[in-house]
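Go through this chain.

——
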Amino acid sequence: MRQQTQYVFKIGVGILMLFIWGIQSCGPSTAIEPGHKAPEIESTLIDGNKFQLSDLKGDYVLIDFWASWCPPCLKEAPQLVALHRRYQSIELPEGAAFHIVSIALEKNDRSWERTTKRLGIDWKYQIVDETRFVAMSSIASDYGVTDIPSKFLIDPEGNFVSIRPKVSEVDAYLTSKLKS
């Protein structure tokens, strides 16, 4: 009986691994590299309003995939909050603004809410995508995200500038735009 239970468990784990691999191997439908168009995101913000990434065309956008249960995400959150505060009211060249779009990949939204309050994450564009696994999020899949934190910097034309940049690299890029 014990061998049979172990066998069933191994089969179950194998099926789960194949399922996750299958989702990941599908990958994004567009090229995720600098210069290419960022996939559209259509979702609902935490305040209940509808969101479309294309509505932010003309501005710089940092898309941030994270979760309240992710230690590296929590570690870099203060840098992200500081970046938002630094650029939230600065006009970049050609009248462009800077926005952060946070996509929290959460198992439940209660821990997310406590964490955002504690960390001071208060920007307008916040989405909670409840999912058990990162690979099962359709938004994350469109961006080829398999692990978090993952960030994508998008220019005013809607094209990728940088794939998985550090917060300091985003800051340096935006600073260079201010000087040009």
